[in-house]
Predict the structure.
Amino acid sequence: MKIENTSKFRKQNFWSGVLFGLGMVAFIDETAFHQLLHWHHFYDKSTTSIGLISDGLFHAFSWFSTIWSLFLLADLRRKKAFWLKRWIGGLFLGAGLFQLYDGTVQHKFMKLHQIRYHVDILPYDLTWNITALIMVIFGLVIVLRTRKSEGMIKNES
Amino acid sequence: MNHSHIVHSQDGYSPWILLTGLFLMLLIYCYAAIFGGSSHKKWPKYRYVTWFLGLTCIAIALVGPIAHSSHINFVSHMYAHLLLGMFAPLFIALSFPLTLLLRTIKVQHARFISRLLKSEIVGFLSNPIIASLLNFGGLWTLYTTNLYSLMHQHTLLHLFVHIHIFLAGYLFTISIIYFDPTPHRHHFPFRSICMILFLAGHDILSKYIFIHPPNFVPAEQSQVGGKVMYYGGDLVDLIIIFILCLQWYKTANQRVLLIKGQSN
């Protein structure tokens, strides 16, 4: 019963982190780059229709996952099964993967919009995607190191 | 002033009839809540407020300055649409109208209504997929065909489109989050997926409007209108998603208690 439960909660900690990471990146993207800096554009004339669909789906999903991940977190805390380290690992993995997808597939292949306009875009693209890769690697390392439940049992006691 | 009267008489409904109707609904609701169910629990105060807000959203969308300029300005139309199709349904769902009706009317009438709610047709319509399609399909048709310009020429069509916007919005809201008695229930993951797909469709349509103005709408208006739809839809759907997850959170704990109870 105990082992079954911890493996279930290990998954829940992971997914809550991943979903929150994804939502957080989408939120920063919207607030900082769209609204405050005005670097990103609401619509770019070169956007492909598949880009429009992908953007809509990811926007809706990120909106949902931010809220859903926090309710998962509240549920974990209520059941005294919150494991910060694994959650953080999930967060970086989710954040990095989404930023990488946004920076490569959405910005480049689907030409949704560019990071910034009227500048040499290469340094921006490199910074964007390398940051994403670092987050993915960092998150992956933590997630792999928290694969076993011992840490959580120690954490609980 | 005269001009506004002409426009409204073209709509086929006088603002005063509508306002009186809405005011009557407010009075009936309060009367039923205070005196109707004397043998029941006291009706929560916030529900009077949400009912009032819901009716106010309908009123602002259909009469007054925003409603008036929505005939000529697409941005105003979008604000009116947001109030009528998203805010009003949410506020009205939050005020438990069906629960109030069922506890106010005679038992045999209430039985008839609950039998109606259990019927297959209500089950079909309140399925989240069907409700999303009715809601989204209506919007898609309105903004991508010439229905938008036709609507402003024909009184009955205008009325029909507005009733549809409200009803489809209400049906969608109560198919995702449950307040009133809901015999046909669906699992949380299924409702979540429908919610995400609807929101995605809403976002895609907003950007589509941004690029392709509906008939006779100037590009500047369609761009602002598209953004109003995008961010306004986000706001209302954020509230709906929050309630959806909150309802999951409450039942998730009940499930644990149930398991514990069984093992003891």
